[in-house]
Amino acid sequence: MATTAMPMANIAKDTDMSSIQRFDVGPRLSEMAVHNGVCYLAGQVAADGSQDITGQTQQVLAAIDALLARAGSSKHKLLRVEIILKDLADFPAMNAVWEAWLPAGCAPPRATIQANLAKPEWRVEMVVTAAL
Amino acid sequence: MATTAMPMANIAKDTDMSSIQRFDVGPRLSEMAVHNGVCYLAGQVAADGSQDITGQTQQVLAAIDALLARAGSSKHKLLRVEIILKDLADFPAMNAVWEAWLPAGCAPPRATIQANLAKPEWRVEMVVTAAL
Amino acid sequence: MATTAMPMANIAKDTDMSSIQRFDVGPRLSEMAVHNGVCYLAGQVAADGSQDITGQTQQVLAAIDALLARAGSSKHKLLRVEIILKDLADFPAMNAVWEAWLPAGCAPPRATIQANLAKPEWRVEMVVTAAL
């Protein structure tokens, strides 16, 4: 897009398609989109679904750390995390890993529900929104 | 809209209530709100719930296309899509319609869960966030 | 952070960790984060889970009102509300309280699903995104 030197040109650019930065784009989904200072992550699940809730939560949080780092963000800047558990009996063990991972003073708004996930072995999925 | 030449006037307007644009406002919900360059869509479901997952997914995606177009956005600018399936057995058929619909290089972050929806005939609901 | 009088200092601040304002921060979660003109609330549930769906919905909406007021926002500025019901039979009673609460012309985009919540007595949870 041709732009001028006027400030309005920068504002217009914010509504341009090129203002969305995508990470790991595939035919079905990408892992993260960054737009206007906000990171929208895909629901993160365990790469190794054979692990128990502790291991799966650790994997999910490590995946979140890695994605946020690529965008220049971090777990200090979480805006909201929606957590889906396959089994609510896993709630305490998931929370233990979660609380150990969180930096002091940075706990984000959360919402947790129980639902089945796309693969039967997945016990936890986290959907993260974070600031850049 | 009448505007002045002062940049601050535009910035202040962004935190004003009038900066939210709503579409199809009813007593219970509206179908879309646009604020600060981001489109928040209501969960889209099939108008004709008698169709199978392929037909319902096509209806949902057409509804998303139509709403985004009214805001001046499009499926090229999706920031995240949360998908709720009534039955995970519908996952492959939903994905086939989804992938055929997506423009190359524009796949957004996604999260998919299994849950019952407000009407028993609904097999899929999609909750879209998109850039303007 | 030391800043200069240059406009760029304000822009940079928007991507600084301090640009996130958190409310009721605990070791596990906070109740609200405000960033870049948007309020992200934690999933709100009833403090008194012994009440029926009408009472629980009233409690949830009062909690939302209180949080939004602390940020300087209100139910006039909702951008999207995601509703989780433990039992879809509660849908009409929840909607009656919801519609009585909403100001005319301000109904936000919604999505409703059925899922179990973190405590068995909770019948409804609402996840709110609002403009400042």
List the helices and strands and how they pair.
Three copies of one chain form a homotrimer.
Chain A: H1 7-13, E1 21-23, E2 32-35, E3 38-41, H2 53-71, E4 78-85, H3 91-101, E5 110-114, E6 116-117, E7 124-131
Parallel strand pairs in A: 4-5
Antiparallel strand pairs in A: 1-2, 2-3, 3-7, 4-7
Helix pairs in contact in A: 2-3
Provide structural commentary:
Three copies of one chain form a homotrimer. Chain A is an alpha+beta fold. The first copy, chain A, has a single domain (21-131), classed as RutC-like (60s Ribosomal Protein L30, Chain: A), CATH 3.30.1330. The first copy, chain A, is 28% helix and 26% strand. Chain A is built from three helices and seven strands, in the order H-E-E-E-H-E-H-E-E-E. The first copy, chain A, has a six-stranded mixed sheet, with helices on one face. In chain A, helix 2 packs parallel to helix 3. The model of chain A is unreliable at 1-16 (pLDDT under 50). Chains in contact: A-B, A-C, B-C. At the A-B interface, strand 2 and strand 6 of A face strand 4, helix 3 and strand 5 of B. Strand 5 (110-114) of chain A pairs antiparallel with strand 6 (116-117) of chain C.
